[in-house]
Amino acid sequence: MTATITPRSPRVGYVLKMYPRFSETFIVHEILQQEAVGTHVEIFSLRLPIDGRFHEALARVQAPVTYLSREHKASLFWSSLREAAREVPTITEHLDELLAAPEDEALAAVELAGAIRRSGLEHLHAHFGSIAADVARLAARLTGITYSFTAHAKDIFHEEVDPAGLATKLREAHTTVTVSDFNRTHLRAEFGEDAERVVRLYNSVDLEAFPFDPKGVAPGPARVAAVGRLVEKKGFGDLLTAVATLVDEGRDVHLDLVGTGPLEPVLREQVRTLGLGDRVTMHGALPQGRVREIVADAAVFAAPCVIGADGNRDGLPTVLLEALALGTPAVSTPVTGIPEIVRHEETGLLVPESDPGALAAALARTLDEPEAAAERARAARSLLEADFDFRDHAVTLQGIFREAISSRARLAGHREREVA
Known about the structure:
With 420 residues, this protein is of the alpha/beta class. The chain has helices spanning 25-36, 74-87, 95-100, 103-119, 131-143, 154-157, 163-172, 181-191, 236-248, 264-273, 288-297, 318-325, 356-368, 370-387, 390-419, and strands spanning 11-18, 40-47, 65-67, 123-127, 146-151, 175-178, 198-200, 222-227, 253-258, 280-284, 300-303, 330-332, 349-350.
């Protein structure tokens, strides 16, 4: 049966734990994509940003941003509740749920409910199935609108994930989006009927902003690029060991490592211990344009992802998609959804996680066989054009929003007919 599509633009509130966040450029680009296809977006952040580093794309976002209160004061909660109740009379029907929720989530949901009515929002979408989805779920119940959320990786696999809480969010969401077939299969296996409305929608890339440029032989050392937060799941310690192996073999290589994070002191000490001071540049955080230049200039892009001791892992790193879009051959590991874009021997090379020797061998092979590496890069670009284009992603996601809004309208109409 064909879904009823509302002719006007959907009005959607994005609920985020922190906005903006330097490491979450994919959210900024998704919002820009939604604005480009006509979705009216308003952003609600549970926390203030903690650093002043922002990507240039942020300036193009038109959506207003509201920072929801997090003060745990009873007086603030009850005053917010009284104010919201004037705009959302049904809020009093859910006092039991509010009182059962953590104080910060309840307060944020109450404030969000009032904003929903004032702005005429029709749907909420959260990123990550953690506190942002909790607040979106509760605010949707208070106001009677629908909600959805995108599940990535940490919010699915981390040891701190509450299975019962995640099951509730999956069950009550109109749709849960996740970024790989691996994630969708896992959720459906773990949560059964509660996960029957999980759909896969890959991370996407602006292919015009990342033009394909086949790699040639460049003067100087062969450059390896890696980008990401300096945390365990990125596997950068394995990469440094692999680079040391290549240097010991007499290869002229240089690693450009872009990113910041809690493991920076550990990795810098590893660089020193391995004697790689003149072979590794740790760039820290860089603007997206400069990151693009480094990745485009590299002979190979390395994403040696691992599953952390706490279960944390990458879903499908956007920077890996961007590297492949640029034509930079990739070496990665078969963690979660990565094999869905890095198909071994077809669009890149995969090595076992936590295996620096295998990683070094794959990097060496990529450097030694430039024609084969270029062929894999061309195949990767074709796959991106087929399944990962951000314009297709935007239309599909807006369709999810529209269907959610229409489903509520159909339900309201059915109830009216029953009453009549």
